[in-house]
Amino acid sequence: MKVAIQGIAGSYHHQAATALFEEATMVECDTFEQLAQSVDRGESQAGVMAIGNSIAGSILPNYGLLQQYQLVITAEYFLPINHCLMAIAGQTLKDIEEVQSHPMALLQCKPFLNDLENTKLVETDDTAAAVMRIKRNHLKGVAAIASSIAASLYDLEIIAQDIQEEKLNATRFVVVEKASQPETENSNKATLNFTTTHEAGSLSRILSLFARKGLNLSKIQSIPIPEQPFLFSFVVDVEFVELQMFKDAVREVKSLTKEFNIMGIYKAATL
Ligand SMILES: O=C(O)C(=O)C[C@]1(C(=O)O)C=C[C@@H](O)C=C1
């Protein structure tokens, strides 16, 4: 089975996809858009895509990609993220003039990076790509932020550990596919996307309905509607005990929304 990820071996996407799919051939993509396209075109049967982080928040453009390519969420996974600063052997913190990493990783390490004076920050396609390039080109004065797995894979030396802003740091990944999978008795979570009418109380009526139907809202995110400046749709994650509860709520909520789309029904994961 081919699984599209953003990044190369040693990236956090690679770790999440390896945990989710025992036997998969990873299709390594430079960007999230390429990942979405790979699944859309059927070049990969599934994709594993980061959608949010406990420190840095939602990766908003990825919500847009799920919509644009009409991908379906079929599973989720929470990966604990412990960032390290690494460089070629012999380099110390004093030698480092440039730090390279994925923008989300840089965001998660802001206080640590703020303390490094006169250090240039460079965004890379993924954490592991930065590590590989530093090793391959034997770059002195340049460090990468990545996992300890990437450090040992590409043989860089760890200079500092656990440099993320908060010790407990995790990224939520979703598995995306072109077509939805039939729901099972294990399905207890769904991601919905809807627009509301522009009236006082329209969102609160929808949220009240979810509450009355026993659905537990675990996330709400507003996302821009393409080509409608400053108009937003809502993406909500709801959890339920029985699928029937969810189906009942969906039947009723449709009359309260303008547009309504189920982005996926799947089994909730835990951290
Ligand atoms: O660059 C990587 O290693 C990734 O897998 C990307 C990514 C992200 O997109 O958020 C994944 C997990 C971490 O939050 C940092 C970076």
Automatic annotation (TrEMBL):
What's one Pfam family here? PDT
Kindly state which keywords UniProt assigns to this record, in alphabetical order: Amino-acid biosynthesis, Aromatic amino acid biosynthesis, Lyase, Phenylalanine biosynthesis
The UniProt record lists the ACT domain at: 191-267
Which pathway does the protein contribute to?
Amino-acid biosynthesis; L-phenylalanine biosynthesis; phenylpyruvate from prephenate: step 1/1
Q: Name one GO biological process term.
A: L-phenylalanine biosynthetic process
- Write out the catalysed reaction: prephenate + H(+) = 3-phenylpyruvate + CO2 + H2O
**What do the Gene Ontology cellular component annotations say?**
cytoplasm
Task: Give its E.C. classification number.
Answer: 4.2.1.51
Q: Where is the Prephenate dehydratase domain?
A: 2-178
Q: Which GO terms describe its molecular function?
A: prephenate dehydratase activity
Aminoacyl-tRNA synthetase recorded as keyword: no
InterPro entries reported for this sequence: ACT-like_dom_sf, ACT_dom, Preph_deHydtase
Protein's name according to its UniProt entry: prephenate dehydratase
What organism does the UniProt record list as the source?
Nonlabens ponticola
